[in-house]
Every structure is written in C-alpha cells, then in structure tokens.
Design a protein that fits this description.
The protein is an alpha+beta fold. It has helices spanning about 5-25, 55-65, 75-80, 120-125, 160-165, 170-175, 180-190, 200-205, 215-220, 230-245, 270-275, 285, 305-315, 325-335, and strands at about 45-50, 95, 110-115, 135-140, 140-150, 150-155, 190-195, 245-255, 260-265.
C-alpha cells in the first residue's frame, strides 16, 4: 500500500500535536511511566509521562522565565480541551501510534488517560459513560473512549481501534528490554519519554523519516565546524535510519531549563553497533564546563575505538570541499591524542 504524502503529513502533524500536548503536561521523573506497562508492544511510537501534575507549577515558572506567554501549563491545556473533571493528574499517561492505515480519515492513535472517575471524565464532555465504547466530542473532533480498568481510559479517533486496544498490564518490561541498559536509564529518569520502533516508523512514513538522526546532524552542522557538514553527516544519518531498531528520547524539565537524553539500539554487527558497543561517558566533560549560561553544549567520548573511528570519519578532510575550518583541524588533532 502506498501512503499518500498528504495523508502521511496529516498523520505526522497529529502525532506532533499530541506529542507536544504530552510533553507540556509531563511530570517529574519517578521511574518508567506506569502507562507504558499497558501499551501494546506492537505500537510504532509511544509518548509517555510518569505524572501529569508535578510540573504544572514548574512549567508555569519556566514559561515565565523564558518569556513565552503563548505557552500553556498542563491545567490550562486540559481546560482548553474541555476536561474539567475525571482526569487523575497524579497518574501516568501515554499516547500510542499503532499499526494501521495511514490512508484512513483518522490516524491509528490511542491515548491512555489516568482517571479515578471515568463517568466524570465523560461527563466533562457532555457524554454519559456506558458499557463498551462511548462517543463524545472534544475541540470539534469526534472521539471514542472506553474504561480499560485500573484507573485508565483509552481514547482515540477510531472507534474500532479503541474497541480492540489491549490495555492489559504487564507490557512494560518488554518495552524496556528492547532499549538496552542505557535506554532503561532514560525511561527511569525522564519526565516524558518518546519510544520508537524504527523499522515500523520507516515503513509507515517512508525513508525520509529519521526520528533521531537530526540530533546527530545538529552536533556537526554548526557554522565553521567542518567542511560540507550536510554531506558529511548524511551518511551517518542514513546508517541510523538503516541500522537502528528501537530508540528512546527522554525529556526532563525544571523551573529553569529542559534537558534531552537519547538512547538508540543498533543492529548487531553494524558500524554504529560497533561504534557504540564499548560504551562511554561524556557526563564528566559536560560537568567540567564553567557554571555560566550557554545556549548549547555537547560532548563526545572518543576513548572507545569504534566511536573514535566514526567521529574521525565524519570530520576527515574532504577533497574539493573548500577550505578546511580551523576548528576541524583542532578537533581532528584532539581526537588522536585524548
């Protein structure tokens, strides 16, 4: 089946809006999000937060400090959606992009909302909770919900998908096991996590989708850093798309800042697998920075041979690419002596 660009773009936009909503209502880290334990393992993309209340105040402080009056706090966003009661703000929430037909009018997305009062949640939308799936309208969209037990409601735009969504507990370990030790640490420490099944996402949205490659590109694409940054980094991004199996991004927020951690699993035997298997830690390098404000900082631990070779490959001089920036010469020299 060929997915039309328009349908894929619409689905991707809806996912982005939903991801933004969950990021905005994430809470402080408290172990892996409990809602992830109830998301089917066949989900292609999952966004999950451990709590919906703890950062309401901090988000407000961050919005004020960053002078972003257009941003909304969790409670404000829920109010705009018409949710006045029924949601358990102390609970965990998740959004899952499931396998499905991207040609359909609505994307295969299901949200798990924590609730201590499912009937009250439906009442806030003017609907009466009944057995099975309940239809209601929110923000001009027709949605469907069902009580899946243990304080959760499954909500989506596709009635059939909501009806068959398996929210039984016991799936959290399977999700974590696919992310490796580093991925588990991200799950446990972040305020909100985004978990991706790379092959499934690529198959659904096409080769142009590279969920984590952009972060690597930004590391080397700064002005005056290396020759032809886009051309040098593109092969690595292609390798990420080709060899990545599962990945997780963790976002942690405070009243003054936000940090992002990323962990990716690669196919055994691939170049990126060899480059990352030996492990490493750049935390000490970042911790050694002066306690002065900065816009962006990153560090790479090149003590492991595989990572050293990968970085050297990206930064190697390129014939015919123009003058080599002085920064590139310095970094190449440092790689071989550290």
């Amino acid at each position: 089946m060929q997915n039309s660009p328009r349908r894929r773009a619409r689905a991707a936009a809806l996912v982005s809006v939903s991801v933004g909503a969950l990021v905005a209502v994430c809470g402080q880290a408290a172990g892996a999000p409990a809602a992830l334990d109830r998301v089917p393992t066949e989900a292609m993309l999952v966004v999950a937060a451990p709590s919906l209340e703890r950062l309401d105040k901090n988000i407000g402080n961050l919005v004020t400090a960053a002078e972003m009056p257009q941003a909304s706090t969790p409670s404000q966003m829920l109010a705009m959606l018409g949710i006045k009661e029924g949601v358990d703000m102390s609970g965990s929430a998740a959004l899952a992009l499931m396998p499905g037909d991207m040609e359909a009018e609505v994307p295969p997305i299901v949200m798990l909302l924590p609730t201590k009062d499912y009937a009250g949640l439906m009442k806030s939308f003017g609907a009466t909770a009944g057995a099975g799936v309940t239809e209601f309208v929110a923000a001009g969209e027709t949605l469907f919900a069902k009580d899946v037990g243990d304080g959760y409601a499954a909500v989506g735009m596709d009635r059939a998908l909501v009806e068959r969504f398996d929210a039984a507990p016991g799936k959290g370990e399977a999700h974590a096991a696919r992310l490796g030790a580093t991925g588990r640490a991200v799950l446990d420490d972040a305020d909100v996590v985004i978990v991706a099944d790379f092959p499934a996402v690529t198959a659904m949205f096409g080769e142009g989708v590279n969920p984590f490659g952009g972060a690597f590109q930004q590391m080397f694409a700064g002005p005056g850093l290396i020759q032809n940054p886009a051309g040098r980094v593109s092969p690595v991004m292609d390798a990420v798309r080709r060899d990545a199996t599962f990945g997780v991004v963790g976002i942690t927020t405070s009243s003054m800042a936000a940090t992002i951690d990323m962990a990716v699993q690669f196919r055994e035997g691939s170049e990126l697998f060899e480059a990352t298997t030996a492990g490493g830690s750049s935390t000490g390098l970042l911790n050694a920075l002066p306690q002065d404000p900065f816009i962006l900082a990153y560090a790479i631990d090149v003590n492991a041979g595989g990572m050293r070779n990968l970085v050297r490959k990206v930064m190697a001089p390129e014939a015919g690419a123009g003058e080599r920036p002085a920064t590139q010469n310095i970094l190449l020299g440092l790689i071989d002596v550290v």
